[in-house]
Design brief:
By secondary structure, this protein is α/β, with parallel strands linked by helices. The protein is built from eleven helices and eight strands. It has helices spanning 21-32, 54-65, 80-91, 114-142, 153-157, 163-183, 208-213, 220-226, 267-272, 274-277, 292-301, and strands at 12-15, 36-40, 69-73, 96-99, 145-150, 188-195, 238-242, 245-249. The chain has an eight-stranded mixed β-sheet with strand order 3-2-1-4-5-6-7-8, sandwiched between helices. Helix 4 (114-142) packs parallel to helix 6 (163-183). The radius of gyration is 22 Å and the shape is globular. The chain binds nicotinamide-adenine-dinucleotide. Nicotinamide-adenine-dinucleotide is lined by residues 16-17, 19-23, 40-44, 46, 48, 55, 76-77, 100-103, 123, 127, 150, 152, 195-197, 199-202. The site of nicotinamide-adenine-dinucleotide (NAD) has 32 residues, from helix 1 and helix 4. It comes from Vermiconidia calcicola.
C-alpha cells in the first residue's frame, strides 16, 4: 500500500448513512482528498423512525463550504438503485461504496418483536445488498470497485439485547466474503469492518471520557487504505477498528477429529476423539472448504472407529 497522502481525485465515493457519526467522517475525509462524494442519509431516528433531508444537507454544506464536491441523497438504503443513480447522474461514475447506514432496535430476545427483527435486517442486510447490487454492473464494466461493509463486534461475538443486530452484522461478513470471491477477477475488492466509535449509537452506552478516545476519525484511515487504488489485493478481510487499534480477524479451525464414515461412526466413537474436535494447539486458518475432498479420502482410509 502507498504512503500517507492518499488521494481520490476523479473518483466517486458513495457513503450510506453519511449524515452523522462514522458516515459523516468518511464523507468529509474523501471529499477533502479530492473525491466526489454522495452523502446518503434517510435522516430518521436511531431506531429507524421518520425521515428528513436535514442530516445529509448539513454534511453536504460542510463539505462544499470547505471546497469539496458532494451531493445529497435522501433515499432509504433499501432503495439502492436510487442511491447509486445519484452518483451516476451527478458525477458519471461510482468507484467506492461504503455501506455504513444503520440503526439499532435493542431488546432482549424474549421480548423481540417481528418489527424489531425485520427492520434491522432491512436496513443493514437488504440495504447493503441493494446498494452493492446497483453498483456492481458499474464496477464490473470499469474493472474497478471498492466496497466496505459495516459489521460489528456484536455480530462476531454476540451481544446482550442485540440478537437482531448480531445476526444482521454477521450476515454482512458472509456477504463480504462472497463478494470478495466473485469480484476478484474484476478488480472489485470488498472488506468488512467492525468499528467502535463515538456516535449517537454509542452516546448512551459509554462514558464521555471513553467516547472522547473513540472518535469516528480514528476509523477513517483503515477505510481510506482499503478503498484506495493502491490496495490491489486486500479483500475479504474483517478488520476490528477503534480508538487507534486496528486488527484483522479471521476464522480458526481446530485440528479436528477424523473418523471413518461408516456404521462405526457412532456417538461413542466420536466421544473418544472429542478432544481433537476442539484442539486448537495447531490451528488452521481456512478461507474456504478447499481441502474437504482430501479429508473425505483420508477418512475412508481409516480402520473402523473404536467405540
Ligand atoms: P449513526 O446513527 O451516527 O449513523 C448511522 C446513520 O445511518 C445515521 O445518520 C442514520 O440516519 C443513517 N440511516 C439509518 N437508516 C438508514 C436508511 N435506511 N437509509 C439511509 N440512511 C440510514 O451511527 P454510527 O455509529 O456512525 O454507525 C455507522 C455504522 O457503523 C452502522 O452500520 C453501525 O451499525 C456500525 N457500527 C457502529 C459502531 C459504533 O461503535 N459506533 C459499532 C459497530 C458497528
Amino acid at each position: 500500500m502507498a504512503g500517507e497522502q492518499l488521494r481520490y481525485d476523479g473518483q466517486t465515493v458513495v457513503v450510506t448513512g453519511a449524515g452523522g457519526g462514522l458516515g459523516k467522517a468518511y464523507a468529509v475525509f474523501f471529499a477533502s482528498r479530492g473525491a466526489n462524494v454522495v452523502v446518503n442519509d434517510l435522516g430518521g431516528s436511531g431506531k429507524g423512525e421518520g425521515a428528513s433531508s436535514n442530516m445529509a444537507d448539513q454534511v453536504v454544506k460542510e463539505i462544499t463550504q470547505a471546497g469539496g464536491k458532494a451531493v445529497a441523497n435522501y433515499d432509504d438504503v433499501t432503495n439502492g438503485e436510487a442511491v447509486i443513480k445519484t452518483a451516476i447522474d451527478s458525477f458519471g461514475r461510482i468507484d467506492v461504496l461504503i455501506n455504513n447506514a444503520g440503526i439499532l432496535r435493542d431488546v432482549s430476545f424474549k421480548n423481540m418483536k417481528d418489527q424489531d427483527w425485520d427492520l434491522i435486517m432491512k436496513v443493514h442486510v437488504i440495504g447493503s445488498f441493494k446498494c452493492a447490487r446497483a453498483a456492481w454492473p458499474h464496477f464490473r464494466k470499469q474493472k474497478y470497485g471498492r466496497v466496505i461493509n459495516t459489521s460489528s463486534a456484536a455480530g462476531l461475538f454476540g451481544s446482550f439485547g442485540q440478537c437482531n443486530y448480531s445476526a444482521a452484522k454477521l450476515a454482512l461478513v458472509g456477504f463480504t466474503e462472497t463478494l470478495a470471491k466473485e469480484g476478484l477477477k474484476y478488480n472489485i475488492l470488498c472488506n468488512a469492518i467492525a468499528p467502535i466509535a463515538a456516535s449517537r449509537m454509542t452516546a448512551t452506552v459509554m462514558p464521555p471520557e471513553v467516547l472522547e478516545l473513540l472518535k469516528p476519525e480514528f476509523v477513517v484511515p483503515v477505510v481510506a487504505n482499503l478503498v484506495h487504488s493502491s490496495n490491489e489485493d486486500e479483500t475479504g478481510g474483517i478488520f476490528e477498528i477503534g480508538g487507534g487499534h486496528v486488527a484483522k480477524m479471521r476464522w480458526e479451525r481446530a485440528k479436528g477429529a477424523l473418523l471413518r464414515a461408516d456404521d462405526s461412526f457412532t456417538p461413542g466413537a466420536l466421544l473418544n476423539k472429542w478432544d481433537d474436535v476442539s484442539d486448537f494447539s495447531k490451528p488452521e486458518h481456512p478461507t474456504g472448504v478447499a481441502n474437504f475432498m482430501e479429508l473425505l479420502e483420508e477418512a475412508q482410509k481409516l480402520p473402523p472407529n473404536p467405540e
